[in-house]
Amino acid sequence: MAKRILYLITSLMYVWTVCAQPDCFLTHYSSEDGLSQNTVMGILQDSRGNMWFSTWDGLNRFDGYTFKTYKARLGNQIALTNNRIDRMYEDRYGFLWLLTYDNRVYRFDPRTEIFEQVPSGNAGGSAATITSIKLLPGGVVWLLTEKEGAIRVVTSPDTYRLTTEWYAAETGLFPAVRVHEVYEDLSGHEWMLTDNGLGMLVSGRKTPVSFFTETAEKETKDGQPFYACLEQGDEILFGSENGRIWCYRKPTGKFSLFRLPGTSKIVSIKKLNEHEILIATATDGFYVYQFRTKTTKHYEASRLPDAPVHSVYVDKYSEVWFEQHIPGIVVHFNPQTQALKTETIAVEPTSTDRSRPAFHVHEDIHGMVWVHPYGGGFSYFDRKQNCLRPFYN
Q: Is residue 159 over pLDDT 60?
């Protein structure tokens, strides 16, 4: 998320009281200290302990003492088409995957300091508008596009060479325009949740098995869209629209329908504990389903702020955090007490929605939950008092 000034917390000494601010030592780093630009979009600590900062003007590595900047300049060999890096991830082989402002993806090797565009300029999908990068547990990387399907990228564990396959209606590999999500199940199968059904890719096969899709020959796609999933025992639950959840039985390969009241799409399915799951919809509120009693409790949308729910985060204490794009507003839910609370955090004014910082939840190694509401207002969660407390530096 974009911030005008970067505050790097180099050491945290937690002294928590009911209303007290945590004691911290803060060191301020900016362009005066070697950072290439003060607007930081992402922070990552790699497997070697280095800190990486993606900014509006280049990638920065910080070793605890100095910054080293990587960006395209006249005369150098860095092949970035845009120096603004919006997203950054590390794969299992130590490569960094970068999504730039012009919707291109690059793989960066910190060992050789070489940038590689993915897909390469002569490969299928190289001109696609890529909107997100998904790293699966097995090492496969998926690049999701705006309206050109998805690109599957496999890294050779021996040579680190890349091979790509483009799954889209125009390539004939899958009749979808947009892939909303990808998921790798416990059996190693990869699932595509698309605007035109589901695709299941079995290991070693190029062509996925299709469910709920319409053929590419039809002018109008009537296949069901899918947005969220959860693997639970022998089942995988897939959330569609109009309150529909399709339950896939892994032993039989068959689907059954579980229907919720309402007409909204299901944006998230999360496990709360061994006996309950939470099902969140965009505009119909959310539901808590109990496996033992097979009952569902509905928390209506009127109990939430008047805005769609975009995503849900469940922390390790089962507190549920809802992402809604209202500046400074955060809703959280405790399934044990059934308390649903809306909080308002002060945010800095901004001139355009494009520059509003995104919603984010982070749990640190000490068990503290840090919440960044949409639009700003970085806070930590006081669990005893059930409230967010703004973090002022």
A: yes
